[in-house]
């Protein structure tokens, strides 16, 4: 079964028999624009001809002949030919979302999971064994950092060296040929918005036989890491891709060979750990991905406008779309320009007390946004990263990662008009008693 994971472009008849190696070919989405790739992906129609696909809510699937089940378990017949066994293995509705994720990221295959952390964990456990080594960026989402620094060493004997991802010499020296199995970083880091030099990092890793895994949660549509050399791309679909702050989901996007191994009956991390996505969740997400490009354009456009105006007030703004950002030119050289520079900005208020006062005024006086974690929502969400989503890091780790105690991360929404939201923000700033702006 694990050898027949295929991203078919057309609906196949269940009576078709595999045709040699052709049954194992995979659709590689060659379009440069992720929106064009999504438009070219296979469209699944509903059972009765509906323009939207049906939800396949079955946990298990029937066969017409007893011999068929044996052939499915032996790998002769599989989801590439619309033969399904059990929804922990493959579900038609989830498989459709996986095809869309592969199209979005320009990879051969993808597999959608119950959360972003389950996607990350499954990839690392598949690629690394006891005693092997990972090199990872110092600046990561707090849960990912805890996975690398605490859980994997304790449970699996997998050690991680943390590096400054912008220091290419440091990264290169940390990768030990024959021992290091994975180089892991975020395309745009959480929360500091540091931009990784994806092409150069991938070239260095390839020279040493290291697999590159990139978390692209902050930059769907904006960046396509697989086209820049990354081997595997992971996502928390919960964020921008979902857009509604109502679903927890993740994805692994990469080579068919890796996804096949992760679905192996004996050794596959996805198969055996069971981070299964519900078909009803997959249906909802499949209906949202077609307008992801429109949403990302608006998130990014507003983030850039807010960053420029806040900077003009003297606030300490971090945004990779600003020319003074240290990786601005790098991002311009890599990004899909139509989708901007990402939908997040950071304000460095220096202390947690000042950060909290700012957020309190923005939410409770200006009605500008909500104090909440996560990102990608149509309303602006804001949090003080050091005491929330990066709280897993100790003080020294936060310092090395460049996370100020007063760093406020804002996921910029698109509800209302821009001038309406700017007026709300200005109202909140005027209510603060002590000056916020510093020259």
TrEMBL record:
Gene Ontology process terms (BP): transsulfuration
Comp. bias regions, Basic and acidic residues: 13-26
Pfam assignment, any one: Cys_Met_Meta_PP
Modified residues (N6-(pyridoxal phosphate)lysine): 239
Annotated region (Disordered), positions in chain: 1-26
Molecular function per GO: carbon-sulfur lyase activity; pyridoxal phosphate binding
Alphabetized UniProt keyword annotations: Pyridoxal phosphate
Keyword Disulfide bond among record annotations: no
PANTHER family reported for this sequence: CYSTATHIONINE GAMMA-LYASE, TRANS-SULFURATION ENZYME FAMILY MEMBER
Protein's name in the database: Methionine gamma-lyase
Native source organism of the sequence: Vigna radiata var. radiata (Mung bean)
């Amino acid at each position: 079964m694990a050898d027949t994971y295929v991203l078919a472009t057309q609906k196949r008849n269940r009576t078709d028999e595999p045709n040699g190696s052709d049954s194992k070919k995979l659709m590689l989405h060659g379009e440069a624009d992720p929106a064009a790739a999504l438009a070219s992906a296979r469209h699944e129609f509903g059972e009765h001809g509906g323009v939207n696909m049906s939800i396949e809510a079955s946990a298990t699937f029937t066969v017409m002949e007893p011999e068929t089940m044996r052939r499915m378990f032996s790998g002769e017949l599989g989801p590439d030919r619309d033969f399904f066994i059990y929804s922990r293995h493959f579900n038609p509705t989830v498989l459709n979302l996986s095809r869309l994720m592969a199209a979005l990221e320009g990879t051969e295959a993808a597999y959608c999971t119950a959360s972003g952390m389950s996607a990350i964990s499954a990839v690392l456990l598949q690629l690394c064994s006891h005693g092997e080594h990972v090199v990872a960026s110092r600046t990561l989402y707090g849960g990912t950092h805890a996975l690398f620094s605490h859980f994997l060493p304790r449970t699996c004997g997998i050690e991680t060296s943390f590096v400054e991802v912008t220091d290419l010499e440091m990264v290169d020296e940390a990768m030990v040929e024959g021992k290091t199995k994975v180089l892991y970083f975020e395309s745009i880091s959480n929360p500091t918005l540091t931009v990784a030099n994806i092409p150069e990092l991938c070239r260095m890793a390839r020279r040493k036989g290291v697999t590159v895994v990139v978390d692209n949660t902050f930059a769907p549509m904006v960046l396509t890491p697989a086209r820049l050399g990354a081997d595997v791309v992971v996502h928390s679909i919960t964020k921008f891709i979902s857009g509604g702050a109502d679903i927890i989901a993740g994805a692994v996007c990469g080579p068919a060979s890796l996804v096949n191994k992760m679905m192996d009956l004996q050794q596959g991390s996805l198969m055996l750990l069971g981070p299964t996505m519900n078909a009803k969740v997959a249906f909802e997400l499949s209906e949202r991905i077609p307008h992801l490009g429109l949403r990302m354009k608006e998130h990014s456009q507003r983030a850039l406008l807010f960053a420029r105006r806040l900077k003009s007030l003297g606030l300490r703004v971090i945004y990779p779309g600003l020319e003074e950002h240290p990786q601005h030119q790098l991002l311009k050289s890599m990004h899909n320009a139509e989708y901007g520079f990402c939908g997040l900005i950071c304000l460095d208020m220096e202390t947690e007390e000042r950060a909290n006062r700012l957020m309190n005024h923005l939410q409770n006086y200006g009605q500008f946004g909500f104090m909440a974690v996560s990102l990608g929502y149509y309303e602006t969400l804001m949090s003080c990263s050091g005491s929330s989503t990066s709280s897993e890091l100790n003080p020294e780790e936060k310092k090395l990662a460049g996370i100020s105690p007063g760093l406020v991360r804002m996921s910029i929404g698109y509800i209302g008009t821009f001038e309406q939201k700017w007026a709300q923000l200005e109202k909140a700033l005027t209510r603060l008693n002590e000056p916020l702006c510093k020259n």
